[in-house]
Amino acid sequence: MNEGAQSEDRIARLRLIRSDHVGPITYLQLLARFGSAAAALEALPELAARGGGRTPRLATRVTAEQEIAAVAKLGARHLFLGQGLYPPLLAQSEGAPPVLIAKGELALLERPAIALVGARNASAAGCRFARQLAHDLGAAGAVIVSGLARGIDTAAHDGALESGTIAVIAGGIDIFYPPENEARQRAIGERGLLLAEQPPGIEPHARHFPTRNRIIAGLAHGTVVVEAALKSGSLITARNAGEFGRDVMAVPGSPLDPRAQGCNQLIRDGAILIQNAADVLEAIRPFEVRVAQPTAPFAGAEPPVDTSDGERSTVIALLNQTPVPVDEIIRQAALSAAIVQTILLELELAGRLERHAGAKVSLLG
Length: 365
What we know:
With 365 residues, the chain is of the alpha/beta class. The protein has helices at 3-18, 24-34, 37-50, 61-73, 88-91, 124-139, 152-160, 182-191, 208-219, 233-243, 258-268, 277-284, 287-291, 309-317, 326-333, 337-349, and strands spanning 77-80, 99-104, 113-118, 143-146, 165-169, 193-196, 222-226, 247-250, 272-273, 324-325, 353-356, 360-363. The protein folds into three domains: 3-78, no CATH class; 112-291, Rossmann fold (3-Layer(aba) Sandwich); 309-363, Arc Repressor Mutant, subunit A (Orthogonal Bundle). It contains 16 helices and twelve strands.
């Protein structure tokens, strides 16, 4: 593919990703069926009509070109799933974002990574431990991945800034959040690596953080949790790591400290108890074997096929507002996986279906 064709393909891919109701699984299904993003864009209105909804808003060429220019002006670049420097471990994860915006040292994506996350209201001792752990792991050759939040995340980035750290942020790559981490975010963009799923200018909202957590877990060979309450975003990251087949590790704490209850619960449920960097390295080695894993993106489902009104009615009758595994729908509908996945795709493009973690779906109210 020559440079002009590559540019057109990137624009079409970005338009497809930024169009209404096109999530990661839908994106891959559309590419599998139609062969290119441009062809998928042409087919979207008809597919949405089959799902019984209004025509989705398609991102325009002008919008895509403006985003590409804005990203370049920031000294960043787009990384598309299945192409070039897209992180190979993340590409294997269910729901991997179709595009990331990256700024900084892209070579860090080629090194083994460990996620280090924890409480925002962390104790001084917890932050000191996280900083030292990140430093020691970095000295051993690992890249530290975290979410640039207050507390443990901040300490982890500080400990690994010299050896290599990746910050995954919930908003646009030019948005500084939390505000007090602006200098730290700038430093990581120059000496480490910043990654964002959202376009420039997008402020982080609550709905963005679960996806940010999945990216953190997907990038890393294993996730270490240092201080976390029982209802904590760090535990979501740990659960994501487990779903991806990665190691989940936790630092134990006093049962009298609420900030230790989440870690203690993880250990009780089977997470690896961590006391120092040597424990982490023992859990995730050998790096070389894991890095050599296949890098094909998660396929999610078979390519879409033609469907009938009767098949569509059968699938819709099995859905409601309660998330249900796609495999269960396939079993109860007594239809092929390709037919069910296609109907779900049509419903999603029509704005009638929501996808959840763990390959579950539900009807929107």
